[in-house]
Amino acid sequence: xxxxxxxxxxxxxxxxxxxxxxxxxxxxxxxxxxxxxxxxxxxxxxxxxxxxxxxxxxxxxxxxxxxxxxxxxxxxxxxxxxxxxxxxxxxxxxxxxxxxxxxxxxxxxxxxxxxxxxxxxxxxxxxxxxxxxxxxxxxxxxxxxxxxxxxxxxxxxxxxxxxxxxxxxxxxxxxxxxxxxxxxxxxxxxxxxxxxxxxxxxxxxxxxxxxxxxxxxxxxxxxxxxxxxxxxxxxxxxxxxxxxxxxxxxxxxxxxxxxxxxxxxxxxxxxxxxxxxxxxxxxxxxxxxxxxxxxxxxxxxxxxxxxxxxxxxxxxxxxxxxxxxxxxxxxxxxxxxxxxxxxxxxxxxxxxxxxxxxxxxxxxxxxxxxxxxxxxxxxxxxxxxxxxxxxxxxxxxxxxxxxxxxxxxxxxxxxxxxxxxxxxxxxxxxx
Length: 431
Known about the structure:
It is a single chain. This protein is of the alpha/beta class. The chain starts with a helix and ends with a helix. Strand 1, helix 3 (60-69) and strand 2 form a beta-alpha-beta unit. Helix 3 (60-69) runs antiparallel to helix 17 and helix 9 (199-214) crosses helix 20 (391-406). The chain has 21 helices and 13 strands. Strands 7, 8, 9, 10, 11 and 13 form a 6-stranded mixed beta sheet that branches. The protein has 2 domains: 2-13 and 41-150 and 315-358, 3-Layer(aba) Sandwich (D-Maltodextrin-Binding Protein, domain 2); 152-314 and 384-430, D-Maltodextrin-Binding Protein, domain 2, CATH 3.40.190. Keywords: Signal. InterPro entries: Bact_solute-bd_prot1, SBP. Residues 1-20 form the signal peptide. It holds the Pfam family SBP_bac_1. It comes from Paenibacillus vini.
């Protein structure tokens, strides 16, 4: 584990000078044919490459708008699955062949500290966003990315099954557990999870931590202390994650789910084979395509005490600019257009969320009616994107260890200790 994350960090922190000379080709001569060729090239749209870990389908309306509004630019959209995104991106950046625009999340601070991202602090469009949307992408007072729509995850549920079984949306974690038991007793699969990915368990467990730990004002400084190595997850979070682990010990999340992919779990839920599934708005289109009459709802992850619950999320991904882009003017055109109400609504159309652009309001619709109280209370948080310097490596280490907990080879305490170790390795490597 230690060698793996050291390797990743070294890849990120290679001296930027190694790539400074790449892409600087020289064309000799000023003859007529050369001038004519330049004139011909000037009429062609400039290609701007966007590398993203959200699929093109989740940006379709937005990309179409860019195509219509910016005829001088041709967008080349490159989707790379999240599991391999950092490896592909790091390799390209080191080789001086990185994309012009990078979709970023929890790795923003690492990339910025390594000198790979352009400082956007003083660009006119940056000030159009609320501070809450810019904070996760800022380092030492400088902004290195501008937010797309917010993201959030909760528990999708089949309203028809709930109605038929006389089940109410849970307001506490005990009620949540009991719903699983009641459905299972009637031969209905309560919850499906594509645990082949480490993300769902990681997020669901942090949902309970949000409710029971981050909601306490006494813990408001925890993330800063964690970044500084002054606090540990294995100490502060342990009782809350152990409470969540009843999902495992009581047979709700089972080892066979480790063999299920995201798509397989989605299909089981969408075709009525399970009553609940954790995910976010990006999955709605696929669910409704598979089952047009599906009665879909979402509720927040409930806490130990009855209340509005919490969603896992916050500022979602953002667009950063490769510091070495050869097309700065065109890239800034794109980000300037993105900072308009029209572009924000286009983004939200294919991937529902709220906007951090000042003055833009979004009606999320009936599917999320059960989340309204949580939204109003501001109960949406993901510490690894909102606050942690080494967010993505830490939660990946934690999530993969939770898979081992389900497999029966690790304890919750060991999973949290693994996350602490990753955080310490990353901190030591940044010194």
